[in-house]
Amino acid sequence: MKKIIFVTGARSEYDLLYSVLKKLNQLAEIDLSILVTGAHLSEQFGKTLVHIEQDGFKIADKVYNLVDTNEKIGRVISLGHQIPAFAQTFIRLKPDVVMVAGDREEAISTAITAAYMGIVVAHFFGGDIAKDGNIDNSVRYATSKFAHLHFTTHPAHADVLRRLGEEPERIFVVGNPALDRFLETPVLDRQALSTALQFDITQGNYLVLVQHAIITEYAQSAVNIRQTLDAIVATGCNCLINYPNSDAGNYEIIKAYQEYAQKYPQLFLFQNLERTLFINVLRHAACLVGNSSLGILEAPSLGLPVVNVGSRQRGRLNAGNVIFTDYDTTQILAAIQQSLFDMAYRQSIKNIVNPYGDGHSAEKIVTILKNLVIDEKVIYKNITY
Amino acid sequence: MKKIIFVTGARSEYDLLYSVLKKLNQLAEIDLSILVTGAHLSEQFGKTLVHIEQDGFKIADKVYNLVDTNEKIGRVISLGHQIPAFAQTFIRLKPDVVMVAGDREEAISTAITAAYMGIVVAHFFGGDIAKDGNIDNSVRYATSKFAHLHFTTHPAHADVLRRLGEEPERIFVVGNPALDRFLETPVLDRQALSTALQFDITQGNYLVLVQHAIITEYAQSAVNIRQTLDAIVATGCNCLINYPNSDAGNYEIIKAYQEYAQKYPQLFLFQNLERTLFINVLRHAACLVGNSSLGILEAPSLGLPVVNVGSRQRGRLNAGNVIFTDYDTTQILAAIQQSLFDMAYRQSIKNIVNPYGDGHSAEKIVTILKNLVIDEKVIYKNITY
Amino acid sequence: MKKIIFVTGARSEYDLLYSVLKKLNQLAEIDLSILVTGAHLSEQFGKTLVHIEQDGFKIADKVYNLVDTNEKIGRVISLGHQIPAFAQTFIRLKPDVVMVAGDREEAISTAITAAYMGIVVAHFFGGDIAKDGNIDNSVRYATSKFAHLHFTTHPAHADVLRRLGEEPERIFVVGNPALDRFLETPVLDRQALSTALQFDITQGNYLVLVQHAIITEYAQSAVNIRQTLDAIVATGCNCLINYPNSDAGNYEIIKAYQEYAQKYPQLFLFQNLERTLFINVLRHAACLVGNSSLGILEAPSLGLPVVNVGSRQRGRLNAGNVIFTDYDTTQILAAIQQSLFDMAYRQSIKNIVNPYGDGHSAEKIVTILKNLVIDEKVIYKNITY
Amino acid sequence: MKKIIFVTGARSEYDLLYSVLKKLNQLAEIDLSILVTGAHLSEQFGKTLVHIEQDGFKIADKVYNLVDTNEKIGRVISLGHQIPAFAQTFIRLKPDVVMVAGDREEAISTAITAAYMGIVVAHFFGGDIAKDGNIDNSVRYATSKFAHLHFTTHPAHADVLRRLGEEPERIFVVGNPALDRFLETPVLDRQALSTALQFDITQGNYLVLVQHAIITEYAQSAVNIRQTLDAIVATGCNCLINYPNSDAGNYEIIKAYQEYAQKYPQLFLFQNLERTLFINVLRHAACLVGNSSLGILEAPSLGLPVVNVGSRQRGRLNAGNVIFTDYDTTQILAAIQQSLFDMAYRQSIKNIVNPYGDGHSAEKIVTILKNLVIDEKVIYKNITY
């Protein structure tokens, strides 16, 4: 029996890995549990622990660590508090493997804790490159340096990991498991969707906005988001707006959302939409606006044009469905209009191939984990040069 | 006025950086303080905080974090507790730069804390390679991924950092500042040394033993060190033995030392020897045994042959003065005897060039720090590929 | 020079002690600094650190500890994180005395930390009794058991402390220093106040509502507060509503406030009103509603009738200006109407004597602290029986 | 099924409660687990976790918290780190009751954590009085203020708790459960004991020394213990010496023990002796020296004379078998000689009644816990005045 703990601090990464977790949970030879931390446990961020429990997963521990502040210091104190807490879980359960995803606090704190304790770390989404000077990049690369297994979404990412000195036999290109659910999620029509949301999107084009705060720009959050909101309002389209993650600056963004939503009935705010609903919201959307990785990683599978605003995601390999703009109403408006009305552009995106996977990632990942032999060779990492 | 905080958790790294700290402290335009943590604050490890205070440095804060256990979990819990504590110091003092050295807990916890808070991290001794599968490697490379300035001791290390994607303009080859003190430390003769130590080393060859525990081998510590001690006893030489660092497994090593020292009067244990004495102990020694980085980095400047026992330091570039052996009495004894009696070998080492520096590192480092412009460009890191 | 650190985690206790702090800061023989923590550092609670800085006090350290959750576990994790953080401050500054007030997390964590470190703890507002089964009671009494000096507001409180076994010479009845500012704060008329608040209260009776969440009832917060809001709306009066403290359940209260405020223009929400304005708001108010200790401790000095809703404050000695009600709209409405229209009752309250002090507390407290001899006798506590 | 967690940080309190734990573990309606922390997890203090595991108890969690320092700050940092760690265990297991004993860090940290989380706290050995000005007193009384059930060893202690305002129905006089094992532990003769210990105590009088460091006197530890050791050496008797607890100052004591033991073969050091052996060591001893609570609480059941050295235990109610002395060789020697050779005194002690229990405490305690109804009434504490 192989014991695996998945550590998750945010709805987004839980959703990305959901297809893998579901498959692992069905295997008799895998004992999976989930260590829930970060934004999952905060009412402000929708207390998404509830979803994980409803999905039927075993909870390894709940680690309440999110420090209530808008300042940069908050994230790193929260990270620090996770380490002894995770160590307490790991020494009790003695997992064979811990899994983490991405480039947030949980990724690095989990990887450090497990690596020091001699536990195999499986890291998802390493090797990605975003040229935005953000702390996330440092976190992602550093996490790779502690990880023993790398599940990447693209050959270019695997290549980055090899250049970082990671041994080739530790690196697997498996694609993005989030795409699996696009194949699996049943289609809802706009009428059903409108009823479920209690917001009418049966008619016309609508936009979806997902914008996260950037720690290095958190003081400008309030100004920047207004540039986007003004452009959206100017289109006259309905827009479904998803709450941001728990980064420094997100309070300002939420405040702006609430203020605009009160003034403009075309705007509809939601938080932690149920997965099936959210995928269908994207399916019928005319354009995704903001700076979510959704636009890069998942939108191509839906043939969805994306307007990426600001520095986040810049420099990341994309399928050709993304227009990058500054925090500038005019630029944003132009990009949205191109996405909505430039028919040649829309057509080119419609059947684009998603470079990040084919919807069959979960089975590849699960097979690798199932067959993994846990021995000294896996634990003892060396740099290849 | 540029505010700099040096974070240190062990006597060894404090000594390595001492020449830099002393020079920084003399500059009117630099406000230097030292954040003291880890083994410096433990009576078990000689409470070396006292030396730092005696050397006249300003103490930024004292962070008591070392968890009292011999298990692997101890180091990572200790690391976790440092992060909120360091954040508390950094938000109070708002340093322009924090400096850390090497690959221990303090290195990564400092680098993470500062990087998240948008403070420039200057890291010493990055890019080094040890092919021992130890956690220290992961820590060292991960620290580099958070650092904004890299002070390396060798062009080959700078090359590793570039391959890790670090931007070339952040990397400086400055040599090992620990070598500076060899030029500066007055020579004591064997008589004076014997008096100071209260142990007679006026006659014949004597050895120095410095062996640190290895986290991945901590259960074997007790067995491994006995192999070395048996070899040393068999030489009949006097041997000065330095206490190990605060790693898992060090209790077993200390216990073996005390047991052997009680039996064999040729063995002499010491802890945290005063710097001038220690350098002179090395100057007159016939051979350095163990697994300290001293053998690789500093012994060449003294023309000192080294027997490196076990996996630590293996794969690190050395000047040709090091014989590597397993934990095996026969091998170790043979290597010590070659170091003592193979005259051609001894001669070749006598005037060897130390590839790690020329004794003028501190001034290079201080100049770079003095001239450093702290702006967004320094803070915003990008990977070069 | 006597070094004193005041530890504060909430605006309320800072305001209560403000007159003392101001006086201490003016003395040459006292070196006062303030350790700021808890809600002071949260944007959600108005980031009142800013006020402390503006008031010109030296900040000893900023301890970000508030865990972002609405569950009961949040408060105690926050408390735990304060202890090592406070210890870090105390060992750096080596205060002669630390001061804390009341019965919140900061009180007990400060008292424990200082008592273990052999530092004198001066505790304000001990010996008070509230018969509500709340954790605050346990915290208050336990804090007294760690404290070396007790500054109480009423002889009955001093009596409780003596019965708890506290040595009489450690107990001082000094009154509530918050009352000092009533004498000192200049009077603003309703016109000036309306202009400052940007809310018109020039005409008619207005109410003030201050309701804090109760940890043991936090699940009912949303329901309970609506009972009060319905009663207030039914009076037709304007009502100024102050945000609650950072206790579990406060999110529900805030949400209800925002919802009602959107519907009823007679309601006006404010957060961390500037002190002079707030005192004048109370001066002209017709009735204070809620469960704030203001009603018990300070309202008598203003001749202000109070309607105390729910279990908080119940059992506390009061001047006769308080009507206690359940969470019940009918009861609350009746009590407000009695407070507004029962002229005999209003008259009886007008010139009531405040049993909690005469407005000259700060000078008494400062004199005691100034003359305090810090020796082993102060530190070594014994129970009197 | 009632879920109970016992929190323990030291061998001594585990032993005191062992008879209760064993009985609870046998009940089908009780789900008992043990949260192991503090000195139990330190190799320095004999890693007594191993005993708990061998005794067959379920481990709830292991909380590594002991900070490696000899300074006073160490204990309170260790205490602080326990709170979030305990909260993590409690929110996972949702115990009905947590049990703690005595007046050490674990007692107060457990009581605070559970009380804030609305979990019933059962506290053992509250209400005891020691007039030594030590922090332990403050900890013990403060723990009582958070506890919901008090298991006391003596009516006088119950009386103290009532005077502290604790409600009478929460207080139970059950005696000291450590005495139960005296009835249950089989008798070993001196020959068997000598064989087991590998130290010959078949002939003549022997002493037992158990001396713990006192935090407020930790700087004098080294001097004080030498006064005792000199007296013991002067008696010419064999002496079995038990290691001290993990308090500040204990390193100095251990060092002195090792130094004297090397010089005087009549001294025999042991650490964490197996329970049956230790009880038999006490059974045959001529006199117990030191400052352990054993002398007060348990020695009367064995008719054992005690010399209590220094301030610890002073003022505690005792059966008449204890002579109190200062840290003074002459006084200590005289008291030991009286204990050994004053036949009237020895006779008076032989069949003394132990005021702290009759050896049937565990069954009383277990019955109370079994019948306890967990409801709001138990949780909501009020002071009785």
UniProtKB/TrEMBL annotation, chains A, B, C, D:
Name listed for the protein in its UniProt record: UDP-N-acetyl-D-glucosamine 2-epimerase, UDP-hydrolysing
PANTHER family to which the protein is assigned, alphabetical: UDP-N-ACETYLGLUCOSAMINE 2-EPIMERASE
Gene3D superfamilies registered for this protein in UniProt: Glycogen Phosphorylase B (3.40.50.2000)
GO BP term, pick one: UDP-N-acetylglucosamine metabolic process
GO molecular function, one term: hydrolase activity, hydrolyzing O-glycosyl compounds
SUPFAM superfamilies given in the database record: UDP-Glycosyltransferase/glycogen phosphorylase
Family annotation (Pfam families): Epimerase_2
Domain UDP-N-acetylglucosamine 2-epimerase intervals: 22-370
